[in-house]
Design goal:
Blueprint: H1 8-14, H2 41-49, H3 63-75, E1 80-84, H4 87-98, E2 104-108, H5 113-121, E3 128-132, H6 137-143, E4 148-154, H7 166-176, E5 179-183, H8 188-191, E6 201-205, E7 219-223, H9 225-236, H10 245-255, H11 258-278, E8 282-286, H12 296-302, E9 309-314, H13 317-327, E10 332-333, E11 343-345, H14 357-362, E12 369-373, H15 379-390
Parallel strand pairs: 2-3, 2-4, 4-5, 5-6, 10-11
Antiparallel strand pairs: 1-7, 6-7, 8-9, 9-12, 11-12
The chain binds pyridoxal-5'-phosphate (PLP).
C-alpha cells in the first residue's frame, strides 16, 4: 500500500508492502541475503550505473529494509528514510553525511550520553560543537558562528524532560542556512513530527519505541530525498553501519502496534506521575503531562501526548534513590527505553556517566535523579511495585 491519506496505524500496518507482489504473503518477506544475482553482465552494469533500478548488495539496499524505510518515512511525513545498524550509527551517519571538517554544530546542553561522547570525539576530526540552552533562543543566537552548519537537538531532553520549541529553532536554522536535526527517539512519530515543524532531518534510535520489544538495536533517519541520498551514499555505503534485514523485519512487526502501545504507555505514565507527585518521599517529578510541568503549554501544542518517560527525585538523595532502584521487582533495572517492559535506571551512573559531573548537575541531572520508562503492564502492579520500593527508604 502506498496511500498516504490514511491514519497513522493504518500506515504503520500496511504502508510499503503489497501482498500481491509476494505470493500473497501478509507480512513483508524477510530477504535474508547479502547479495542479489544479475541475469547477465549487462544487467549488472546497468544496476551499478543506475540505468536500471534494482538491488545489488545488501549494504547498498535490501527489499525488507526498503519496506521499513518507506513506512517510517510515511509515518514521519518525510520523503525518504535511511536505516542504520543502531541509533548511534544514525547519529554519526547524519553528521558524517552532512558535515565536513571545519564545520560547527550547536547542540542542546544536555544530550544522550552516547551522542555527547560522539560530539566530543568529533573534535579530533575538526568538527566543533557548542552545547547551548536551546530553550532560550537568545542563547542560541549568541553562539552562532560563521561555520555553524547544524543545530542538533533532542526534545524532550533526556532525562530532565525539558522541551525545545522546534518551530522557533527551525526559524533560526533557516535564517543561518544550517540543518536542523532532531532526535525524536523519546516520542516516536506517533507523538511528534519534527519535519512538519521545520526540521530538516529526524532521527531515531529504533531500538526504542519503534521496535518496542527490547530485542533489536537499530537506527533510522528521515528527511527529503536529496539529504537522504547524500547520507546513504556517504555515511551508509562508505562507513557501512547498515541495518540487518532480520532487524528490519522485527521492526516492521513492532511498528504495527506503535499507536496502541503509545496510548497505553501514556495512560500508565500519567497515573504513575500523579501517584509519585503526591508521594511524601518524592521531592520532584518531571513529566510533560503534569500540570505542574513548567512547559505544559508547549507540550500540548508541539506533542500529541506526553510520552512514557518520566524522571523523579526522592527525599534522601542518592542513597534513597539506590534503595528504590534495588528493590523494585516488576520495573527492570536496565538502560534503554520505549519497551513494553517498564525499565528504571540511574542516569548519573549509567546513561549519562560520560558527561562530567559539574556539566550534568548544571543541566539538572542530579546524582539522585531516577529515570523510568513506563511499559504497558497493568498500572496497579507498577504503582504497587513503586510503593513497596519507596517504603524501604
Ligand atoms: C535519545 C537517544 N538517542 C540515541 C540513542 C542511541 O541509540 P542506540 O542505542 O540504538 O545506538 C539513544 C540510546 O539510548 C537515545 O536514548
Amino acid at each position: 500500500m502506498k496511500n498516504k491519506n490514511v491514519g497513522f496505524s493504518t500506515k504503520a500496518i500496511h504502508y510499503g508492502h503489497e501482498a500481491g507482489n509476494h505470493l500473497g504473503s501478509l507480512t513483508p518477506p524477510l530477504f535474508q541475503t547479502s547479495t542479489f544475482v544479475f541475469k547477465d553482465v549487462e544487467q549488472g552494469k546497468n544496476r551499478f550505473s543506475g540505468e536500471e533500478e534494482g538491488y545489488i548488495y545488501t549494504r547498498i539496499g535490501n527489499p525488507t529494509v526498503t519496506v521499513l524505510e518507506e513506512r517510517i518515512a510515511a509515518l514521519e511525513n518525510g520523503e525518504a528514510a535511511v536505516a542504520f545498524s543502531s541509533g548511534m550509527a544514525a547519529v554519526s551517519g547524519v553528521i558524517f553525511g552532512l558535515l565536513k571538517s571545519g564545520d560547527h554544530i550547536i547542540s542542546c546542553d544536555a544530550l544522550y550520553g552516547g551522542t555527547y561522547s560522539f560530539f566530543e570525539m568529533l573534535k579530533d576530526y575538526q568538527i566543533e560543537y557548542t552545547g547551548v540552552d536551546i530553550t532560550d533562543s537568545a542563547d542560541i543566537r549568541k553562539h552562532i558562528k560563521k561555520n555553524t552548519r547544524a543545530i542538533y537537538i533532542e526534545t524532550p531532553i533526556n532525562p530532565t524532560m525539558k522541551l525545545i520549541d522546534i518551530k522557533a529553532v527551525a526559524k533560526i536554522a533557516k535564517e543561518i542556512g544550517a540543518y536542523l536535526i532532531v532526535d525524536n527517539t523519546f516520542l516516536s512519530p506517533y507523538l511528534q513530527k519534527p519535519l512538519e515543524l521545520g526540521a530538516d532531518v529526524v532521527l531515531h534510535s529504533a531500538t526504542k519505541y519503534i521496535g518496542g520489544h527490547g530485542d533489536v538495536i537499530a537506527g533510522i533517519i528521515v528527511s527529503n530525498k536529496e539529504i537522504a541520498k547524500r547520507i546513504r551514499m556517504r555515511a551508509l555505503k562508505n562507513v557501512g553501519g547498515v541495518m540487518s534485514p532480520f532487524d528490519a523485519w522485527l521492526l516492521l512487526r513492532g511498528i504495527k502496534t506503535l499507536g496502541i502501545r503509545m496510548d497505553r504507555t501514556i495512560e500508565n505514565a500519567m497515573k504513575i506521575a500523579i501517584y509519585l507527585e503526591a508521594h511524601p518521599k518524592v521531592e520532584k517529578v518531571y513529566y510533560p503531562g503534569l500540570k505542574s510541568f513548567p512547559q505544559f503549554e508547549l507540550a500540548n501544542t508541539q506533542m500529541k501526548g506526553p510520552g512514557g518517560i518520566l524522571s523523579f527525585e526522592v527525599a534522601g538523595g542518592v542513597e534513597a534513590g539506590i534503595t528504590v532502584m534495588n528493590n523494585v521487582e516488576i520495573f527492570q533495572l536496565a538502560v534503554s527505553l520505549g519497551d513494553v517492559d517498564s525499565l528504571i535506571q540511574h542516569p548519573a551512573s549509567m546513561t549519562h556517566s560520560a558527561v562530567p559531573q559539574e556539566e550534568r548537575i548544571k543541566v539538572g541531572i542530579t546524582d539522585g535523579l531516577i529515570r523510568v520508562s513506563v511499559g504497558i503492564e497493568d498500572v496497579e502492579d507498577l504503582i504497587h511495585d513503586l510503593e513497596q520500593a519507596l517504603a524501604r527508604i
